[in-house]
Amino acid sequence: MDVIVGGGVAGLSVAWRLARAGRPITVVDPAPASGASHAAAGMLAPVSEVTFTEEPLLRLGAASLARWPAFAAELAADAGLSSPRELGYRADGTLDVAFSADDLAALDETAGFMEKLGLRVERLTGRECRRLEPMLAPSVRGGLLARDDAWVDPRRVTAALLTALERLGVAVVRARVRELVRDETGVRGVRLGAGDGGPAGDGGPEVRHGGAGAPEGRASRGGPYPAEFGAERVVLAAGAWSGGLAPVPVRPVKGQIMRLRSPEPLLGRCVRGMVHGQPVYLVPRGDGELVVGATQEELGFDTRVTAGGLYELLRDARELVPGVTELEVADVVAGLRPGTPDNLPLIGPGGEPGLFLATGHHRGGVLLAPLTAAILLSETDAPPGPDGLVAEDLVALCSPGRFAS
Questions:
Q1: In whole angstroms, how far apart are CA 220 and each of 94, 121, 173, 199, 300?
Q2: How far apart are CA 209 and CA 175, in angstroms?
Q3: Measured between alpha carbons, how far is 293 from 333 in angstroms, rounded to an integer?
Q4: For the segment 38-63, what is each residue's pLDDT rounded down to a tens digit?
Q5: Which end of the chain is more exposed for a tag (fewer CB within 10 A), N or C?
């Protein structure tokens, strides 16, 4: 049996692909889909997010984006949905706009870099931007259209993954992993426990206790389950909490995000922007929801939603789309992205026999989910998924071995 520690979009995607390949799988997380995946906006935007220092991340993102159409179609089918649209999957591109003259100069510089990389982007005037998105402010100076970008609703994606796993007979144990079980041969399982603020998968409440006082979890298929699970392989996909279970260079990066609501969608596609040098994005849903995010704060395991963080989001979003101030506030949340020193994920063998990693995705957990699952399939000798093998150079970019020293 393989045990997946963590029930966010990365861990659930790995579990789903391995289960489809015929592996016996157990997922352990105290509250699946409640952490960073629950907070995420769901942008699949490797092109519009490219920076001068993150070309390797662009390559990973582009490769994973190419896998998303098949991934979404197969997931929708396995979860009993009528189409990928029910996952909130849309591929209408991202409009990246500039508010001030300085913002436009910076955007022009980025556009030149994108064009050198051969990316498909289209420079637009302010008037052309407003023709595409009439709700943009008249003060928008210009923009870029990245037609190949897409987005999904991560909450729908993780719900579909949990449904697909249930249909495949995979147990999801709602418990906290206290530690990895090791012997002289390597990692051989996980031990559950109530703990006291310890590693928590994708976040959530403490493990429930059994009647005899021994820590036990309740699973999606009944339970109770024992306090220890043996495993041929353990996949650590615990996001920002991964460092509490294994010596991996992952830290929490706080992001505050808000969801607004209107009877009809305010925008037709994702809008990103720079407002006086500060980034902001607005992601529309078909039901009228508009996701506005997100701050980046190095504050450890702090998940408080603050007035200052929300003020910054609304202030900058209003400069680009004034109508946001008329919308109903539907939800505010803070999540913890799992960051690494080079902003690249840790996917592959974890440095100990029996341990594999699927963590450290920082801002790209949703985007990189299909690629993460495909790499883990190849690294664990499972049959390749329907989207085929992953190129060796991409596998090397994600290798945890780069931090072995």
A1: 37, 45, 7, 21, 31
A2: 9
A3: 10
A4: 999 999 999 988 887 888 999 999 99
A5: C
Q: How big is the chain, counted in residues?
A: 405
- DSSP character string of 161-189: HHHHHHHTT-EEEE--EEEEEEETTEEEE
Is 210 a residue whose pLDDT tops 50?
A: no
Question: What are the two backbone dihedrals, phi and then psi, of residue 182, each rounded to the nearest 5 degrees?
Answer: -125, 150
How far, in Å, CA of 332 to CA of 363, rounded? Answer: 18
Q: Is the peptide bond before 224 cis (omega within 30 degrees of 0)?
A: yes
State the first-to-last Cα distance of the chain, in angstroms, to the nearest integer: 31
Q: In terms of Cα–Cα distance, which of 67, 46, 131, 32 is closest to 373?
A: 67
> What is the distance of C-alpha 286 from the center of its chain?
20
- String of b and e for 136-174 (b: at least 16 CB within 10 Å)? bbeebbbbbbbebbbbbbbbbbbbbbbebbeeeebbbbb
Interval 72-128: pLDDT, tens: 999 999 999 999 999 999 999 999 999 888 989 989 998 999 989 889 999 999 999
For the chain, which domains are there? 2-39+156-250+342-403 (3.50.50.60), 94-147+251-338 (3.30.9.10)
> What pTM does this model have?
0.91
Residue 264 CB neighbours (<10 A): 6
Report helix, strand or coil for 69.
helix
Is the N-terminal amide bond of 294 cis, ω within 30° of 0? yes
* Run of H or E including 330: strand 328-339
Q: In sequence order, which residues have a C-beta less than 8 Å from that of residue 367 and are 6 or more positions away?
A: 43, 44, 45, 46, 61, 64, 65, 68
- Cα–Cα dist 217/396, whole Å: 36
Q: How far is the CA of 150 from the CAs of 93, 243, 302, 363, in angstroms?
A: 5, 31, 30, 15
